[in-house]
Amino acid sequence: MRLRTLPQAERLILLGITCAFVSWAAYFIYVSSVVAVDGVRYFSLFDDAMVSMRYAWNFSHGQGLVWNPGEYVEGYTNLLMVLVMSCFTALLTKEHAVLAIQVLGIPTTLCTAYFAMRAYEELTTLETGAVRMAGRVSVFLLTVTYYPLLYWSLMGMETGLLTALVTAGAYRIDRFLRSYESRDLYAVSLIMGLAYFTRPDSAIFAVIMLGLVAVHLAVKLSPLQSGSMLAVPALVYAAFPISQVAFRLSYYGELLPNTYTLKMQGIPLDVRLHSGLAFISPFLEQTALLGTILLIGLLLTRSSRQLLLVLPLPVAVVYQIYVGGEPWQLWRIMAPAMPLALCAFVLYAERALCRASDWLRSRSAIISRRFVPIAVIGAAVAMAIDVNSAFAGQMTFKTRPFQFVNNESNVNIAAALNNVLKEEATIGVIWAGTIPYYVDLYAVDYLGKCDKYVANLPPDIPDRPGNWASMRSVPGHNKQDFNYSIVEKRPTYTQTLVWGNNDVREWGARRYGSVRYLGVSLMLDKDADPVRRKLLDRT
User: Fold this and answer.
1) Which of 63, 121, 340, 432 has the most CB within a 10 Å radius?
2) CB-based contacts of 391, cutoff 8 Å, min separation 6
3) CA–CA distance, 97 with 438 (Å, rounded to integer)
4) Rounded to two decimals, what is the model's pTM?
5) DSSP letters of 14-37?
């Protein structure tokens, strides 16, 4: 299937959906930007993506792949995304590099939609016709309207790139299962290898794909033939994690990334499972209809090839439970599996509607199959509304995008600090992305994503695991030592003096003073020389 070979009506429909999506995405980028207190418009990604942008900026400006120059800590889990970001930070200003990454989310999402359509084409049993056209349009529509995928893509997270790679890998795997051409298998190895560089836990999807291939080959070929066909592609894929571990050991001196240590080390499995189950429950509620249809469809069709579309979603859910959930219920880990799951929904819906139409036609001459394409698209629209119902306010811009208030606050803090602090000043932050990226001074990461000492601390586990009181208790945000980060390091600016069970406000009251500059409250060291000017409105 090539776009230029599609019927003109279908191309016009797809073009219309694409234009609507691009317009919506452009407006999303605009409303997620901030006009700061200094009068400058700043673009801002999700804060974790801004951490990656700081790595990219330092890397592209000769400081190394580091958060603080001279400190070798792997505080990212998205190497390929960091390298992509570094291409833009090398060429553009800080604000425009961020904007470029947001804009990049648009073609990335469109690529995902295209490969989802290709996967649908490989699996549909219909001959060319109006129903098949409706199926392609439905898959495209469902992909470019799934809000969690759009949000993470346009806010600079690696989720968009990972989803495009996973969807492309699934398409090429299905081509291989149909034709058994080795080039498809090699393509999958390279695609999923790049997915590993994008995010290492994408290995869960690679295992599904290569596992299905191994099962199919074991049935069709002898053990020697199947083994020889799989050996080289498996080695090609394995070269990616092996090379990244080798790089990590030589560059950072660690076997595992600092983020893994921060989120997993010291947190008992039962605590993670309780937390993960509590976190995932709303997702299961939001996708209950989709999950039910996929399960029924899989049981009725008994198609092993369609497992390729269905399995990634439950596997992602299990993985999310295992790691203990996240602070943000926007389904970052499940989003890469959703285009494939929605593709499977369209396949099952069109099959059911065609059979229902045939059954009704056998009993009434009035019933015509020409209504099936409309019904397929109607089912897709209904499913799009269902899976996005929790995000309707953000999708229609009745409410600001998730985390906008925090982004706005952090941008304003950065703008004020750039007017207050000298180059030798230091900053201490809870939000390790936006402020350090735009301020570009030595920074202290209180929550340890970019600090090996903090990442290796024992976690602050709540009394009621599975019912996390706040973001302060979630894995990744539940390790801190303010005696080390604030009392010992004493940054010129500190974003807070209390987090979780860490409270140094009594000590800080004697050494830090609250200052308002450009309407922004800043907590500055009273005795620090690196303050650029004398501020008279200390309180």
Assistant:
1) 340
2) 147, 148, 151, 330
3) 11
4) 0.93
5) HHHHHHHHHHHHHHHHHHT-EE-T
